[in-house]
């Protein structure tokens, strides 16, 4: 089982959209896929589940069936993780639902990070909670776990990333997104290095993630319709992406710089799907499964088909880097 996080320090770059579509694509190809919503905003959970199910999951009290339910005892200091409940979306697709209450875990995780330095066992239980929840949540046979996180470098994300074997970096061709890469590259390196050191102090009988967080590549979400001035700026940011990725994320010495379209680290240049997005939201399905009954008629039919091909190629690349069969 491989765990892959989708992460950028900048919000609105399509992380959640990507995880949703990739999960459906993997499942459509028979790859048993677990999706874990570790963004306390829980937008991804709201994409998968209808309003009635959400109401049932998020009543006023304890939320036993969300990720919050799984960490509740750790948060209170009364015990360890609980068995996470996996909501089956289809035969091959399971979700550990997100929860706004997860934000209460931020301070606890931040505190645990420093207490791990003192070989504190409960701090290691806290730090490895997400990792152990993902492993338990995959026990129905999931081959891949896709992790959705919020756009910050806080303690929840640090712990989510440490639980991940690999990381894909979604971005948009704009200044904020590039700055996001510049921030997160060094953060990933620091988390990797400190965690490697902390692992030498971990209790030997507790399963711990190795904290590889290996960068798979970046995914560019293209902008919608642009005017001339915007096109110039767009092209300028686009030209910078391969260099910033190499420098900030890989600390590679730059020999020569390819264009994004020819960059082996660019996993996909995703189209902007404008009018198909509200249609997909309404139909509660990925864009590439839209049918004429959902309103995908005329020129939309080809766009839907192209979207399928686009995500199929992206899923194949990610599967190949994770050593997972995909055909
Ligand atoms: N390829 C795309 N084409 C059109 N709109 C997109 C695309 N990807 C994402 N969006 C839209 O952009 C917004 C931000 O995407 P989201 O996935 O929520 O970003 P993030 O999770 O990085 O904050 C959402 O409204 C989403 O529907
Ligand atoms: Mg999101």
Protein model, in words:
- This protein is an alpha/beta fold and 327 residues long.
- The chain has one domain: Rossmann fold.
- 46% of the residues lie in helices and 13% in strands.
- It contains twelve helices and eight strands.
- The protein has helices spanning 15-28, 43-48, 51-57, 67-76, 105-116, 121-127, 129-137, 155-162, 175-199, 228-249, 276-283, 299-321, and strands at residues 2-6, 33-37, 87-90, 93-96, 144-148, 166-171, 214-221, 266-270.
- Strands 3-4-2-5-1-6-7-8 form an eight-stranded mixed β-sheet, sandwiched between helices.
- The longest helix is centred in the middle third of the chain and has 25 residues, at 175-199.
- It is globular.
- It starts with a strand and ends in a 6-residue tail after the last helix.
- 44% of the residues are buried.
- The model has no long low-confidence stretch (mean pLDDT 95).
- Bound molecules: adenosine-5'-diphosphate and magnesium ion.
- The site of magnesium ion (MG) has 4 residues, from helix 1.
Layout of secondary structure:
Elements: E1 2-6, H1 15-28, E2 33-37, H2 43-48, H3 51-57, H4 67-76, E3 87-90, E4 93-96, H5 105-116, H6 121-127, H7 129-137, E5 144-148, H8 155-162, E6 166-171, H9 175-199, E7 214-221, H10 228-249, E8 266-270, H11 276-283, H12 299-321
Helix pairs in contact: 1-12, 5-6, 9-10
Concise summary:
With 327 residues, the chain is α/β, with parallel strands linked by helices. Helix content is 46%, strand content 13%.
Primary descriptors:
single chain, 327 residues, alpha/beta, Rossmann fold, 13% strand, binds adenosine-5'-diphosphate
């Amino acid at each position: 089982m491989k765990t892959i996080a989708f992460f950028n320090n900048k919000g609105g770059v399509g992380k959640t959209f990507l995880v949703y579509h990739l999960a459906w694509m993997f499942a459509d190809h028979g790859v048993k896929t677990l999706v874990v919503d570790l963004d306390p905003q829980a937008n991804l959970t709201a994409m998968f589940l209808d309003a009635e199910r959400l109401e049932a999951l998020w009543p006023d009290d304890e939320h036993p069936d969300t990720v919050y339910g799984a960490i509740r005892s750790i948060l209170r200091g009364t015990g360890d993780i609980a068995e996470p409940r996996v909501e089956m979306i289809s035969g091959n697709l399971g979700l550990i639902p997100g929860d706004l209450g997860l934000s209460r875990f931020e301070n606890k995780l931040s505190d645990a990070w420093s207490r791990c330095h003192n070989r504190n066992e409960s701090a290691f239980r806290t730090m490895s909670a997400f990792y152990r929840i993902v492993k338990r949540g995959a026990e129905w046979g999931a081959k891949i776990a896709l992790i959705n996180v919020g756009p910050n470098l806080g303690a929840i994300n640090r712990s989510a990333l440490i639980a991940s074997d690999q990381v894909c970096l979604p971005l948009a061709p704009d200044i904020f997104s590039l700055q996001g890469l510049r921030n997160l590259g060094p953060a990933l390196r620091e988390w990797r290095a400190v965690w490697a050191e902390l692992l030498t102090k971990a209790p030997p009988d507790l399963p711990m993630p190795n904290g590889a967080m290996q960068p798979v590549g970046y995914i560019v979400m293209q902008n919608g319709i642009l005017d001339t001035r915007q096109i110039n700026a767009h092209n300028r940011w686009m030209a910078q992406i391969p260099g910033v990725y190499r420098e900030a994320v890989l600390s590679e010495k730059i020999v020569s710089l390819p264009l994004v379209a020819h960059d082996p680290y660019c996993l996909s240049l995703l189209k902007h799907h404008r009018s198909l997005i509200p249609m997909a939201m309404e139909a509660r399905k990925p864009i590439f499964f839209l049918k004429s009954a959902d309103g995908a008629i005329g020129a939309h039919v080809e766009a839907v088909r192209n979207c399928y091909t686009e995500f199929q190629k992206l899923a194949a690349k990610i599967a190949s880097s994770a050593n997972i069969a995909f055909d």
